[in-house]
Design brief:
It holds the Pfam family WD40. The chain is α+β, with helices and mostly antiparallel strands. Among the domains are: 92 residues, Thrombin, subunit H (Beta Barrel); 134 residues, no CATH class; 146 residues, no CATH class. It is 22% helix and 31% strand. It has 13 helices and 34 strands. It has a four-stranded antiparallel beta sheet, with no helix packed on it. A four-stranded antiparallel beta sheet has the order 2-3-4-5, with no helix packed on it. Helix 6 runs antiparallel to helix 8 and helix 9 packs across helix 12. The chain is globular, with a radius of gyration of 26 Å. The N and C termini lie far apart (90 Å).
């Protein structure tokens, strides 16, 4: 009796098949038995900060990683040795780094200040300053084209997708220039992807939650920008009441499907070959003119607080029965004050300024309401040494508004101020073909970071990181979770399968890169109850994150200083008199 279809059948027929090795490798990735044996092979302690990017070279002989420490590190994944550790001239956190196709010495990287570096590791002195400064805002993702080492694509918060031809120029010092602009979407672009089968097919994800597939060959004519025909587009209709950032895009190996991971939501698989339905492409225009209103904030999270991440994190629950200590009560009062401020748009700009004697009626009413809460709760005193330390920090951060936050920050911020910068309408055509949702993958949590990769493992499995610190694997067709592994003490962001072998690289908030491969002594038969517990916990925590705002300690101290000055100026007494 012959072996059934799949891995063992390909092993059986390998001696009689010229393409036996390739078939064995491909079928092994599609084997559930191998997926459930994935275990930790090696932890590479090679960085001094969060690792925001991991990528293989074409052959899979080298692994490139980069992150918050500004270093580009190239590692041999088989000997686990570092081949190159280079500190770049980037001034802010590196968001993405890749090898240029067909090369092992030419790499590219982009950072939070929008700079794109084009580096030759064999000519460091000549190329270490080869930066493209065309983007005016953070550059999130770089893409390359198979077998083409001279073309780079990038996307940015400034709303543009750019294409650089290294044969004509290796750097550019002009901010917001038009020289390399491929598409101006009018609203921030969070990520892009190139089809592995049709390299001219470009997927663009914008912050209105829409993904558009365009043909790069049809974008420019005589150097002039014009309306672009959207070949395909997709979004999640149920999410139309609110914009959900797309944190990653991935084409299936055959280029027929696109996988999109939504922040504060799930992962969706869209087919490019289903019968589309037509609609007017007014999503981005509506988003610009009438940005969706987020729900009122109910909780605050301190920037750098990772208490709601990792394998042990569980949903927040109110405990009404345990007696509150005095310090806990003070924290609750402060939390309530900050939430009130962030839910009152007229106060946000005011608290960033010095107190004035004259306020608009709206501001006065808001301040009276918040300050009366302080009075009702009792005297709220902030020790003077806190303000002294705060002022010292403030003096060293006079340009803090120009600093771009790390990827370790939550992206659950109000989008109105950012979006209002982009008043130009997108250049896409008026009518688009919307593709229907093919599959939905649930159970993970994608709330805390700008980047959360989801990708294909072979043809039959979907992988993603999670804020619970787990690596998730789903069956592509049944959407069943078939494997869970703890892969970070906080958050798993990056997931990159080896191009040919049963080897996986992951990274996240931990300052390392982890390599995973099938282990003979591991068989991850996960109890259904455990999977259900993790999935339900993640679902609830996603809901809670939607009404949580991440606040910088400097902003908190500024607000405390502001209210302290109000008290000293007698404003509180005047508002009580008015009442």
């Amino acid at each position: 009796m012959l072996p059934s279809d799949g891995f063992f059948r390909n092993v059986y027929f390998q001696p009689y098949n010229d393409r036996g090795s390739a078939r064995v490798i491909n079928s092994s990735k599609n084997s559930k038995h191998f997926v459930q044996r994935l275990g930790l092979e090696k932890t590479l302690e090679i960085h001094q900060g969060c690792v925001n990017s991991v990528n293989w070279n074409d052959s899979g002989s080298l692994l490139l990683s980069a992150g918050d420490d500004y270093h580009l590190v190239i590692t041999n994944p088989f000997t686990h040795t570092v081949c190159v550790d280079y500190k770049t001239q980037h001034k802010t956190n590196i968001f993405c780094a890749k090898f240029l196709p067909t090369t092992d010495n030419r790499v590219i990287s982009c950072s939070a200040d929008g700079a794109v570096l084009n580096l030759d590791l064999e000519k460091l002195k000549e190329t270490e300053q080869n930066f493209f400064y065309c983007h005016s805002a953070p550059c999130y993702k770089l893409e390359t084209i198979h077998d083409e080492p001279n073309i780079i694509l990038s996307c940015s918060e400034d709303g543009t997708v750019r294409q650089y031809d290294l044969r004509t120029s290796v750097k550019c010092t002009k901010r917001s220039c038009d020289d390399n602009k491929l598409v101006d979407c009018g609203i921030p672009v969070s990520t892009i992807a190139i089809s592995p089968v049709k390299p001219y097919q470009l997927a663009i994800a914008t912050v209105d939650g829409m993904v558009r597939i365009v043909d790069r060959r049809k974008i420019m004519k005589n150097g002039l920008f014009q309306k672009i025909e959207t070949e395909f587009a997709f979004t999640v209709p149920s999410l139309s009441h609110r914009a959900y950032r797309i944190t990653s895009l991935a084409y299936s190996p055959d280029g027929r499907d696109v996988l999109a991971s939504y922040s504060n939501e799930d992962i969706y698989l869209f087919s490019l070959h289903n019968n589309p339905y037509f609609c007017t492409d007014n999503c981005a225009n509506d988003f610009l003119e009438n940005p969706p209103n987020p729900p009122p904030y109910r909780r605050i999270r301190l920037k750098g607080d990772w208490g709601d991440t990792g394998p042990l994190a569980r949903p927040f629950t109110d405990n009404f029965f345990r007696p509150r200590t005095r310090s806990e009560a003070s924290v609750d009062v402060l939390s309530d004050i900050l939430i009130d401020v962030f839910n009152t748009p007229s106060l946000i700009s005011v608290v960033m300024q010095n107190p004035r004697s004259n306020y608009s009626p709206e501001v006065t009413a808001s301040l009276r309401r918040i300050l009366s809460k302080i009075v009702q709760q009792g005297e709220f005193i902030v020790p003077s040494h806190i303000f002294t330390n705060y002022l010292a920090i403030e003096n060293t951060n006079s340009n803090e508004n120009n600093i771009v936050p790390s990827t370790s920050n939550s992206n659950n911020q109000r989008d109105e101020n950012r979006v209002n910068i982009y008043k130009k309408p997108p250049v896409f055509d008026d009518f688009i073909k919307l593709q229907s949702i093919k599959k939905r993958y649930r159970g993970h949590r994608n709330t805390r970071t700008l980047f959360k990769e989801a990708t294909f493992w072979g043809n039959d499995f979907i992988m993603s990181g999670s804020d619970c610190g787990h690596l998730f694997v789903w069956d592509r067709y049944t959407c069943e979770i078939v494997m869970l592994q703890t892969a970070d003490s906080r958050v798993v962001n990056c997931i990159q399968p080896h191009p040919s072998r049963l080897l996986l690289a992951t990274s996240g908030v931990d300052h390392n890169v982890k390599l995973w491969s099938p282990q003979s002594d591991i068989y991850n038969m996960i109890p259904e109850l455990y999977i259900k517990e993790i999935a339900e916990s993640n679902t609830l925590m996603v809901e809670q994150s939607r009404d949580t705002i991440t606040v910088s300690p400097l902003i908190i101290m500024r607000m405390l200083l502001y209210f302290n000055k109000l008290g000293q100026s007698g404003f509180l007494d005047r508002t009580n008199t008015i009442q």
